[in-house]
Amino acid sequence: MSNGRAQNPPESCTPIENNLPVGWIEITLDQILQTLESGSRPKGGVRGIKEGVPSIGGEHINENGEFRFETIKFVPHNFFKQMNHGHIQTGDILIVKDGATTGKVALVRDDFPYNPAAVNEHVFICRPEEGIHPLFLFYFLFSKEGQDRILENFRGSAQGGINQSFAPRTGALLAPLAEQKRIAAKVEELLARVNATKERLAKVPLILKHFRQAVLAAACSGRLTSDWREKQSYIQHAKDLLLSILAERRQFMQESNPKKRGAPESLHPYREAWDVDPSEFEELPDGWVWASGEDLFAWSSGDFLPKKKQEKGPYPIYGGNGITGYHSEYLVDHPTLVIGRVGALCGNVYITSDKAWITDNAIYASYVPTKLNLQYVKMVFTQSNLNANAGGSGQPFVNQTVLNKVAFPLPPLAEQHEIVRRVESMFKLADAVEKRVAAATARAEKLPQSILAKAFRGELVPTEAELARREGRSYEPASELLARIKSERESKRVPEKVRRTRN
């Protein structure tokens, strides 16, 4: 038998590789397809047809070489029976003919959920000849090399596509049949492992989200710093801190608006004495007290700022989604709390770095106690889940009333600093994990094409030529396989010609 060394590619095909594995050849798709056809739909389309035979179009093939069946359309059974082309069979490779997804491919496997089924006029059925392993051909067409070869034949504008002439113009690689099967099996195995890895990686962001929520819950309940409190010989009670804050807030309110009533004399409308905790709140550690948003802060709404004024200036502009631009003026001249107040941005919490402008889709603390750690304050409001507790029967909103009612677990100032230090340390760890997961995900996304590139260089499994040499046997190289396919194809055509002559 021939040693199967690479032959020169047909003139209509752009060479793919000058040095092919022993036993491989370059061919064109038309040489190995027994069927290349598209389907059709009834005159007037299929809108309103609720049952019948599923009709597969370009929208049902995704970029991962898989099918999506969220919105299946149908052709009537009678129409399907009259169709002389476009019937789907197991082992068919479907290729999108036109539009933005031209060239996307999918393989009809044994688990394809519809039988019978058809393609519409926007999809080609590529049915390989016997001797061509469907998975091998599918993976070549799905590979970057195969996609590039298909799209070399794209004609027309953005809504153009490929026609039947793409088959004799699209180059492909052909390996011995036994090697095709080994390559396809190995690719399946490796891609299954890649997909399993991607699924595990995809779960990590949710795990990290729950981790951060758990950290904040522990921080705002005192559990995070329970060991720290045990080691302290003396900590000033938060009751004294709150009294100091209330006095400071009262002075601020009187200075900013002498006619406006200051902070209430009693600490809470639902509590008369320090040693009585409200039953609706969980018990706090010794040295902590419950306060409210009204006890600690004064709130103001941001001011409207046209888009044209949000481009220049030294001062950041904060809105419900963080910094949105820069301006030449500022509303606040010190670090403060900014909270999104409307819709999807409702409840987002930010801290300004210094002087800043706040837009009207946010609310901010116009007064922040000097004896509070602002990072701890942000943690409490984030943990309070303002979006879920916002007002409004339609679009949610946060206003001063909502923020004033927030129950605020207040620890001593020294413990606030320790809480912030520990939370930031844990969040830094979570951030590092997140970056590593993002990098691993990016690598995993590239792995399928790397595997396919290696497969079609003949590097993924031992070549049939190499195995035959080791085992001291002969083998059928791709050149002889192609000759056999051609001979069998010709033998099938002769009887058909004879029948037509006799008729």
Task: Note the topology.
Elements: E1 25-28, E2 33-38, E3 53-56, E4 73-75, H1 77-82, E5 93-96, E6 105-107, E7 118-119, E8 123-128, H2 134-142, H3 144-151, H4 166-169, E9 171-174, H5 177-221, H6 226-230, H7 238-256, E10 289-292, H8 293-296, E11 298-301, E12 315-319, E13 322-327, E14 332-333, E15 337-340, E16 349-351, E17 355-358, E18 362-367, H9 374-383, H10 400-404, E19 407-410, H11 413-455, H12 464-471, H13 478-502
Parallel strand pairs: 3-7, 12-17
Antiparallel strand pairs: 1-9, 2-8, 3-4, 5-6, 5-8, 10-19, 11-18, 12-13, 14-17, 15-16, 15-18
Offer a quick outline of the entry.
This protein has helices at about 75-80, 135-140, 145-150, 165-170, 175-220, 225-230, 240-255, 295, 375-385, 400-405, 415-455, 465-470, 480-500, and strands spanning about 25-30, 35-40, 55, 75, 95, 105, 120, 125-130, 170-175, 290, 300, 315-320, 320-325, 330-335, 335-340, 350, 355-360, 360-365, 405-410.
CATH class of the largest domain equals Alpha Beta
Helix content: 25-40%
What's the shape? elongated
Instruction: Give the CATH architecture of the largest domain.
Output: Alpha-Beta Complex
Beta percentage is 15-25%
The helix/strand class is: alpha+beta
Give the mean pLDDT.
88
Determine Rg (CA atoms, Å): 35 Å
Indicate the multimeric state.
single chain
Any idea of the CATH topology of the largest domain? Adenine-n6-DNA-methyltransferase TaqI, Chain A, domain 2
Query: Can you count the beta strands?
Result: 19
> Which regions are unreliable across 5 or more consecutive residues at pLDDT < 50?
1-17, 260-277, 497-503
